[in-house]
Amino acid sequence: PILLVGFARTAMLAPGASAVATVVFSAKELAIYDTEKELWLLEKGTYDIMEGPCADPDRVKAVQFAMAEDVTFDYPGAASPPDVQGAGADECGTFRCRRDEEFLTNLSEAEKIAMTINACILLAVVLVLLTCCCCFWRRCCRCGKSADAGKKK
């Protein structure tokens, strides 16, 4: 199985630019919990550690980490807070997401137009659905008949 053990974020980069990002993790994060022994188990075997700018297999690099034998240990969990940008010393339960203003200000003009068009399409769909529901319940548009067609003179 493939397991995401960490990620890092860089500042917005210009096309063709690069940046170094550091992701720190421990072999303990590759372990599974052995319920019979009530301990963590890092199984014997070879682990492929993959890194890259995205999940595209052609852009991912791998190194191998070999365990010669099974290792069991007690592990209460991460000793340090998660590396969440902007979270600082906040506890995970109290951290609240904030708008990414840097990302929003760097949207290209084409992306802004695409977002506006998507919002307009969504609005149009909602209006059509509301109109159809209204006409269905009021029966004013069924079978091309008007609301006055059934009234006697």
Task: Describe the overall structure.
- With 153 residues, the chain is an alpha+beta fold.
- It contains two helices and five strands, in the order E-E-E-E-E-H-H.
- The protein has helices spanning 101-105, 109-138; strands at residues 32-34, 39-42, 45-51, 61-67, 71-73.
- The strands form two sheets. The protein has a three-stranded antiparallel beta sheet with strand order 1-2-5, with no helix packed on it. A two-stranded antiparallel sheet has the order 3-4.
- The chain starts with 31 loop residues before the first strand and ends in a 15-residue tail after the last helix.
Terminal Cα separation, in Å? 76 Å
Number of strands: 5
Strand order in the sheet with the most strands: 1-2-5
From the alpha carbons, calculate the radius of gyration and give it in angstroms: 28 Å
Which spans of ≥5 residues are poorly predicted at pLDDT below 50?
none
Provide the helix percentage.
Answer: 10-25%
Main beta sheet strand tally, sense and closure: 3 strands, antiparallel
The proportion of strand residues reads 15-25%
Averaged pLDDT, please?
76
| Dominant shape | elongated
Could you say which structural class the secondary elements and strand pairing correspond to? alpha+beta
Order of helices and strands: EEEEEHH
* Annotation field: number of helices: 2
